[in-house]
Amino acid sequence: STSTTGLFYIKIPERLFYGMTRDLSSQESGTIKVKIKVDQNDEYDKLFLETKIIEQMNAHSAYRNKNYRVVNVLSQNSVKSIPLQIVDTFMGMVIFLLEQNYLESSNTAKIKSDLIYRFLIEGNNLMKFQQQIKLYKWTGHEELTFVNISDYVSPFMAYKAAYDSQEIIRIQKIMVENPAMPLKELRLKTGYPNTMKNTLIGYKDQIEGRGRNYSIL
Questions:
Q1: CB 3.0-4.6 Å disulfide test: which of 18, 30, 102, 191 passes with 113?
Q2: Distance in angstroms between the alpha carbons of the first and the last residue of the chain
Q3: In a 10 Å sphere around its CB, with 0-12 CB exposed, 13-18 middle and 19+ buried, how is residue 27 labelled?
Q4: For position 8, what pLDDT does the model report?
Q5: 103: nearest Cα among 93, 114, 113, 88
Q6: Model pTM?
Q7: What letters, b where the CB count within 10 A reaches 16 and e where it falls short, cover 129-160?
Q8: 93: pLDDT strictly greater than 90
Q9: pLDDT of 17 higher than 80
């Protein structure tokens, strides 16, 4: 038999578990061993979540004639688990794009937008992000609807390209007029708060031909 590991980070209804495993039968031959990891939570322990998931999902597999079997459900502390922290980070990025929070004018939104954009433009991250992140919309039924992440990434990239172009032109004009201006003075001149210093450095590096991510690589 083969082994498949599922990493589930948030509390979700049992039907969503079923939906996530609905295609396992067509992907592998033989019995598929499923291992599930959940974020550590005292409420889960009170509900005996691990035992219930194993019992209910295996009952579902037998009733629906699926060929998977949940062998264990492990509770992990996200503070000590790098995989859970990575999942949490990517979930935050996806939610940010889905809710189009980059359209907000707050400095926090601008900082997050810059970080996500700089991650996506590095190497082939954009392609991997769109190919490897799978989204499904749950409508209350067992069946899930596939959501194309590209439909949300493309508007973000277009928005950032336009926004960055305006900022780069504005910053470049100041740099041309004051070629020896220190970074701190440039930050004050452009109106960037200290929390957005790294964003400014990225623009400056790009203007000077070193690449947007030069200072963080």
A1: 102
A2: 42
A3: exposed
A4: 47
A5: 113
A6: 0.78
A7: bbeeeeeeeeeeeeebeeeebeebbeebbeeb
A8: yes
A9: no
